[in-house]
Amino acid sequence: MTVRVGYFPHNNSLFVLRHRGILERALPDVEWVDLRALPQPGRADVKSALPSVHSDHLFAEGGYDFIGTGFTPPITALGNDRDIVYVGISGPRVENGRLVTKAGNGIESVADLKGKRVGIAHGSWQTTLLLFALEKAGLGWADIDPVDTDVHDGGALLLDGSLDAWVGAYPGLTAVEAATTLHTLIDTESVFSHPSLWFTRREFAENNRPALEAIITALQESDAWIVQNPRAAAQYFVDDIVARGGAADLDAWDAALRGRPFGIGPVTEEFLDEQQHAADLLAVNKLLPRTIRVRDAVEPSIGDFVVQAATAS
């Protein structure tokens, strides 16, 4: 049976694993599926819905069996009645980004964002960070003008004044810091742990356990290599961007990878509490179609294997 593993640069671990040839030792017939090459639906309305492409492709013909993302997509999947299970999480990535504005523009706190245009890569961890920040300030989604900037355009839009604030992430945030003085409205650590995470279909987890365990083991080995070789890992990202006609700074990517946690751990009660809090907020703010129970997506035996694989690596 061919196992299809989805990947894209925003899950750094899977993107590097795609280039390392490690998983192929255990799964010679593995097929790597670039999420960016799959059919992309129109953008969800940033004011009233969430994009679901990451989980949709787990259940679509020609999609994949396993994917790694940021914080929000599994919540979206559960809200859309997708039968998924969590596989594991990384350590906190609180250094990865933050909610910023240009210094001196009169916006001194999150409370000042009422009625303002705030850029996010909608449907990613950035949506959750912004919701958590608004909650702390006594605001909701309807109090701001959210703008879906995708993951590439927010910095430029902040600089030219099209946005009043932006949830920026490294390495892209580096260029904006060099171009202007920024004021941090809230950092990630103040609101949640922001791990990477991996999930799959329940059917795949139950019926293809050896393949799932091979993926977990390969990720552990590849992540350990990234920790020891961050600049070589960064080169994969730079090469990909250049091949697509863009420009990338190897030093910035090197610095970004050095600042991130690698390795897969089991889902924790603290993580699940954060997921549930986010799910509840998304539902209350009418971005999620229904309330969900995130612990329905936990399979303890998977967590046991993740621990075992981490100990052995």
Kindly describe this structure.
This protein is an alpha/beta fold. The chain is built from 13 helices and 10 strands. Strand 6, helix 5 (125-136) and strand 7 (145-148) form a beta-alpha-beta unit. The longest helix is centred in the last third of the chain and has 20 residues, at 209-228.
List keywords for this structure.
single chain; 313 residues; alpha/beta; five-stranded mixed beta sheet; three-stranded antiparallel beta sheet; 10 strands
Percentage of residues in strands = 15-25%
The tally of beta strands, per DSSP, is: 10
Low-confidence blocks of residues: none
Question: Which secondary-structure class do the elements indicate?
Answer: alpha/beta
Strand order of the largest sheet: 7-6-8-5-9
Mean pLDDT: 95
The number of helical runs is 13
Rough outline: globular
Radius of gyration: 19 Å
The percentage helix is 40-55%
